[in-house]
Amino acid sequence: HDSDDACMRSQKFQEDFLQKMNMLGEKTENGEPITIRTLLDLNEVCLRRHGFSDPWREQKILENKTALRMLRLRLDEVDKLRDNDRWIELVRGLLAGNMFDWGAQAVCEILEANSSFGLNEALSYIQPRPWLIDGLDEWLARLQGPSHRCAAIFVDNSGFDIILGILPFARELLRRKTKVILCANSEPALADITYKELKDVMSSCCDECSILREACTSNRLLVLPNGQSGPCLNLKNLPTELCEAMVHHETDLLVIEGMGRALHTNLNAKFTCDTLKLAVVKNKWWANRLGGDTFSVICKYECAV
After folding, report:
1. How would you classify the pairing of strands 296-302 and 133-134?
2. Per the confidence metrics, is the pTM higher than 0.90?
3. Residue 274: Cβ within 10 Å count
4. Where in this chain does the record put each Damage-control phosphatase ARMT1-like metal-binding domain (predicted)?
């Protein structure tokens, strides 16, 4: 669509979305309760209906390019650290990367006010421990044991989040001889990276890091679509290809990142493999409900049940 009619289409989107919102009672048409996932999925459906298939596309491209220029420096910083100090910094970096979320009003205000806001600035927003949900010590203790066979990482945002947060973390898992499956959205949602975008980004990232390059070449690092078209994670909708890959590679660790995937959905879900759920709470209502403040940290590690 041409941008000339964007204002008209955005007005129609707003009317459509508000009408659908008003029609919702306490339950959806199929009898399920109204949840945040319901509203986020409705938002994406209405956007697509009015020609906004990927409204954040240009912003994602820009942030991916910016983050790529910083990747080598970030990896060098991490490599100077040892043992637990390295893993603590990798977790903090992953959380800091998750600050770059254009779907969160509190973050939008920061990013719009400071165009030079980068990973180091985001790290300063990560609260000192103990965190609101703090399972970091349990995660560090688990790392003293045998390596996981395969980790499936359900990723979130483009740019700093995936490139400077997730990839250094995944790289360290690869160093432990753990295979890694990066699971990205099948369709666009907010500024979340899609499977196709991540495939392209990985090609550039491999130019910056021999560990990532060798893992991709040997299929120890895979990128697969997760079957989602919104910012939440409904594990009932995982595609067959991903499920078969997780079984084939004997996945024994799930890493679920971001508010939509680890907080709005799956926070209290129990799994038959180890799980690490990581997010920064960028919504004041949610933070208050959990007993914390805006930018509180969720770092929840649970052993297999």
Report:
1. parallel
2. yes
3. 20
4. 10-293
